[in-house]
């Protein structure tokens, strides 16, 4: 793929506790993307980023371990020609976050219920394969044909494979009481994702869209607010929400595993 025909797609970088694994997305053919560990120079030339290439190799191994599953981004292989990287199917509705931001007032209960169940199904499958996602949030959840697919395993871990991504979720999806990645942190993050699916906004961000967090200092202010609440064991009200007890159970560590959450959700919803 030459520089002339590669079309660089936007890649949003959020505030994180650890450095984000910077990369770029290229369209290699219709509905197929290349995710590569590169940066683009001012002259539009492509430069490798050796310090993050190992994380892409780890993500490749994790995607191969996960295999084909309807709730996981479709991995199509490894692009061996420069710039090397992951070949992925493009999700035709973009991220869950962008869809919620643009359409949240028009989303009915039926799709919210479907996404609620599908997100639990996805994380339960990931954990069944011995993988901790470590950065579960609506930006890392895609909508393809209006169905959920989880993506971005660059910071994920799998003890059996010796892969330690050292990732941590963003504030709002991070439990300050836990402070380490793993199944328990993923379950806490799941609670915030399910809350966002039901309400259209992040915990303690009522009436605001996620893009406002890009304003100077806004993410830092939000992080301080939500981290203080969560550290004190204080959570948003969930009365009347779909699956309210499941959301709260994720936040309060009432569940031992995602398979237990999946059983509860299928029974109650």
UniProtKB/TrEMBL annotation:
The record's Gene Ontology biological-process terms are: signal transduction
Which Enzyme Commission number(s) are on file for it? 2.7.11.1
Under Gene Ontology molecular function, one entry of this record is: protein serine/threonine kinase activity
Keyword Kinase appears in the UniProt entry = yes
Annotated Gene Ontology cellular components are: cytoplasm
Kindly indicate whether the keyword Metal-binding belongs to this entry. Answer: no
Keywords (alphabetical) are: Kinase, Transferase
Q: Please name the Pfam families in this protein's record.
A: Pkinase
Q: Which domain of life is it from?
A: Eukaryota
**Protein kinase domain sequence ranges:** 14-269
The record's section on InterPro entries has: Kinase-like_dom_sf, Prot_kinase_dom, Ser_Thr_protein_kinase, Tyr_kinase_AS
Name the CDD domains for this protein. Answer: PKc
Enzymatic reactions: L-threonyl-[protein] + ATP = O-phospho-L-threonyl-[protein] + ADP + H(+); L-seryl-[protein] + ATP = O-phospho-L-seryl-[protein] + ADP + H(+)
PANTHER family in UniProt:
SERINE-THREONINE PROTEIN KINASE
Q: What does this protein do?
A: Component of the EKC/KEOPS complex that is required for the formation of a threonylcarbamoyl group on adenosine at position 37 (t(6)A37) in tRNAs that read codons beginning with adenine. The complex is probably involved in the transfer of the threonylcarbamoyl moiety of threonylcarbamoyl-AMP (TC-AMP) to the N6 group of A37. BUD32 has ATPase activity in the context of the EKC/KEOPS complex and likely plays a supporting role to the catalytic subunit KAE1. The EKC/KEOPS complex also promotes both telomere uncapping and telomere elongation.
Give the record's subunit note: Component of the EKC/KEOPS complex composed of at least BUD32, CGI121, GON7, KAE1 and PCC1; the whole complex dimerizes.
Q: What is this protein called?
A: EKC/KEOPS complex subunit BUD32
């Amino acid at each position: 793929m030459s520089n002339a025909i590669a079309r660089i797609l936007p890649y949003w970088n959020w505030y994180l506790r650890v450095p984000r694994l910077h990369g770029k997305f290229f369209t290699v053919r219709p509905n197929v993307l290349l995710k590569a560990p590169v940066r683009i120079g001012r002259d539009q030339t492509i430069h490798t980023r050796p310090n993050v290439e190992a994380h892409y190799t780890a993500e490749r191994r994790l995607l191969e371990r996960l295999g084909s599953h309807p709730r996981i981004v479709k991995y199509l292989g490894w692009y061996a020609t420069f710039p090397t990287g992951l070949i992925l199917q493009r999700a035709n509705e973009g991220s869950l976050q962008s869809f919620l931001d643009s359409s949240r007032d028009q989303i009915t209960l039926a799709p919210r219920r479907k996404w609620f169940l599908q997100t639990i199904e996805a994380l339960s499958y990931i954990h069944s394969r011995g993988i901790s996602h470590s950065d579960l949030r609506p930006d890392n959840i895609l909508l393809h044909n209006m169905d959920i697919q989880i993506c971005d395993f660059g910071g994920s871990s799998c003890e059996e494979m010796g892969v330690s991504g050292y990732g941590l979720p963003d504030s709002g999806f991070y439990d300050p009481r836990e402070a380490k990645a793993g199944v328990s942190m993923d379950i806490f993050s799941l609670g915030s994702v399910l809350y966002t699916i039901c309400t259209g906004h992040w915990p303690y961000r009522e009436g605001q869209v996620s893009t406002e967090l890009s304003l100077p200092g806004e993410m830092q202010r939000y992080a301080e607010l939500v981290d203080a609440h969560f550290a004190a064991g204080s959570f948003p009200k969930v009365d009347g929400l779909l699956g309210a007890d499941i959301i709260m159970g994720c936040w309060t560590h009432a569940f031992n595993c995602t398979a237990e959450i999946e059983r509860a959700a299928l029974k109650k919803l």
